[in-house]
């Protein structure tokens, strides 16, 4: 049973140090003193009111938080769930099979961000009677913390409801309200979410037999990081729609005349609709991390390692030219594996078997940032004397190549600056105030990144030349 000291411990470690990702897990247990609220930066955060600190709950509240002290790691959870029927890779976690492909039936691919597999698998589980309901993110939020939010978790029970939850939502969401509904509404559920959100569901299931029984499947999304509401606001503002006027946004509009990674952004207000290529908008450089949660810089799970299936974009040369989009799929649950193979045999899916190395290659940049460079970011927090969550890698002041360290520092600077500068811009009602703060740092980041790439290429050429000199029979 959690006590006031344990509530305060979670507040003083995870929340006070900026590691709350806003998943809402700590607010799910009955009698939990925590609730979810948006902060001034447009991020969901857990809040511990002073008058609720002496509430009592049977949950060990720190162990339901994906960043909490003592909570099970992705490796521990994955081993318990998947070890018997899966292989293991340190980059991907446990895996049964990896694919690249797309949905051919219906409008799943047309209405999806990529190959349509995310919505399709949820609907297939629903249609085949594996589950009664799907927990997904939709624009018809209903009952969210803030009625002005564009997206939120809700429960879908039909194809149309499930499909309305398609597409990528680079937007904050939280699980507490929808999981409280699951606890009060019998049925079998599937849930889809980002890696840390799926981990929080698994942590709740370890303490809550009801959620363990009712949530039958977890689908995960390959993740770069989570954005605040200000990311959507910033894109709309650049396209002529002020943040308070923004009514809807589509982050991934496919361009039939361009590769899959050259999509557009669409925004609407009550009297305006604009569509602009995403790479023409400032702040959309994913590596720079504008409006990123701090917690995302301290998460080392890219492939949703605790999910029964994980889906992402096939950013591989063989697939990226297809403007309609192609998914990377990694399966871990035998039932989902069977559902996918049956549909492929019936011609409803077009899938290529790929190696786990190809799956890793498709997310190379994200894995290097999240799996490798995290050790350096942990070291910098330790050096400041800050509390940090326990991760699967140890803090290290060494990061190779050495000049990558500066890029990591600039990324942290851009993350922090983006939140503060945008609040200033909102107060002044002047988007230029945001740009004027961000551009000098971003230009330095791009200049350093370009220099780093040139150095890496020169190093690669030296290695190749050395290799050619020592291999017998190779003509120069």
From TrEMBL:
InterPro entries: Co_F420_Hydgase/DH_bsu_N, FRHB/FDHB/HCAR-like, FrhB_FdhB_C. It holds the Pfam family FrhB_FdhB_N. Residues 98-179 form the Coenzyme F420 hydrogenase/dehydrogenase beta subunit N-terminal domain. Residues 188-354 form the Coenzyme F420 hydrogenase/dehydrogenase beta subunit C-terminal domain. PANTHER family: 7-HYDROXYMETHYL CHLOROPHYLL A REDUCTASE, CHLOROPLASTIC. This is Coenzyme F420 hydrogenase. It comes from Marinobacter zhanjiangensis.
């Amino acid at each position: 049973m959690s006590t006031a000291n344990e509530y305060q411990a979670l507040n003083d470690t995870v929340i006070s140090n900026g590691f709350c990702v806003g998943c809402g897990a700590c607010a799910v247990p009955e009698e939990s003193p925590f609730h979810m609220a948006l902060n001034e930066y447009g991020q969901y955060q857990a809040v511990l009111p002073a008058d609720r600190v002496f509430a009592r709950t049977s949950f060990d509240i720190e162990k339901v938080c994906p960043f909490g002290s003592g909570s099970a790691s992705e490796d521990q959870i994955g081993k318990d769930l998947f070890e018997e029927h899966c292989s293991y890779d340190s980059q991907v976690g446990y895996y049964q099979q990896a694919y690249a492909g797309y949905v051919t039936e219906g409008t799943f691919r047309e209405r999806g961000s990529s190959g349509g597999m995310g919505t399709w698998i949820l609907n297939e589980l629903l249609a085949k009677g594996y589950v009664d309901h799907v927990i997904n993110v939709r624009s018809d939020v209903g009952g969210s913390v803030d009625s002005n939010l564009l997206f939120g978790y809700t429960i879908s029970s039909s194809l149309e409801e499930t499909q309305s939850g398609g597409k990528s939502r680079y937007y904050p969401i939280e699980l507490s309200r929808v999981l409280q509904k699951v606890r009060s509404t019998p049925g079998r559920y599937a849930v889809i979410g980002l890696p840390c959100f799926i981990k929080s569901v698994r942590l709740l299931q370890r303490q809550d037999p009801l959620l363990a029984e009712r949530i039958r499947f977890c689908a995960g999304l390959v993740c770069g990081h989570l954005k605040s509401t200000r990311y959507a606001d910033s894109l709309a503002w650049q396209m002529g729609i002020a943040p308070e006027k923004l009514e809807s946004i589509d982050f991934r509009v496919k361009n039939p005349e361009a590769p899959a990674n050259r999509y557009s952004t669409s925004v609407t207000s009550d009297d305006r609709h604009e569509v602009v290529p995403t790479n023409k908008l400032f702040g959309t450089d994913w590596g720079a991390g504008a409006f990123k949660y701090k917690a995302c810089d301290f998460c080392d799970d890219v492939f949703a390692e605790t999910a029964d299936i994980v889906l992402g974009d096939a950013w591989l040369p063989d697939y990226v030219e297809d403007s309609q989009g192609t998914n990377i799929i990694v399966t871990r649950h035998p039932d989902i594996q069977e559902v996918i193979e049956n549909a492929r045999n019936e011609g409803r899916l077009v899938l290529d078997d790929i190696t786990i190395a190809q799956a890793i290659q498709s997310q190379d940049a994200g894995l290097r940032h999240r799996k490798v460079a995290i050790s350096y970011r942990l070291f910098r927090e330790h050096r400041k004397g800050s509390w940090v969550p326990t991760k699967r890698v140890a803090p290290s002041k060494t990061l190779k190549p050495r000049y990558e360290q500066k890029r990591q520092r600039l990324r942290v600077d851009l993350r922090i600056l983006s939140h503060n500068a945008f609040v200033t811009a909102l107060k002044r009602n002047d988007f230029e105030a945001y740009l004027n703060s961000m551009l000098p740092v971003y230009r330095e980041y791009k200049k350093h990144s370009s220099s780093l790439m040139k150095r890496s290429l020169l190093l690669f050429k030296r290695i190749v030349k050395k290799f050619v000199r020592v291999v017998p029979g190779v003509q120069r």
